Amino acid sequence: MTYLRCILKPGKDKPLIGRHPWVFSGAINEIDESCAKGDLLEIYSAEGEYRGTGYFNPESQLSVRILSFKKRPIDTSFFQERLKRALEIRRKVGLPSSSTDSFRLVHAEADGLPGLIVDFYAGYAVVQILTAGMEKFKGVITDILVSLLSPKGIFEKSPAEFRSKEGLLPAEGCLVGEPVPDLVEIRENGQRFYVDLKKGQKTGFFLDQRDNRDLVKSVSAGANVLNCFSYTGGFSVFAAAGGASSVISVDASAYALELSEKNMALNGFGAVHSAVQADVFEYLRQEGEAFDLIVLDPPAFCKNKSHVDAAARGYKDINLCALKRLRQGGFFYTASCSSHISADLFQKILFAAAKDAGRELRILSKTSHPADHPVSIYHPEGEYLKGLLCIAD
Ligand code: SAH
Question: Structure pTM?
Answer without folding.
Answer: 0.97
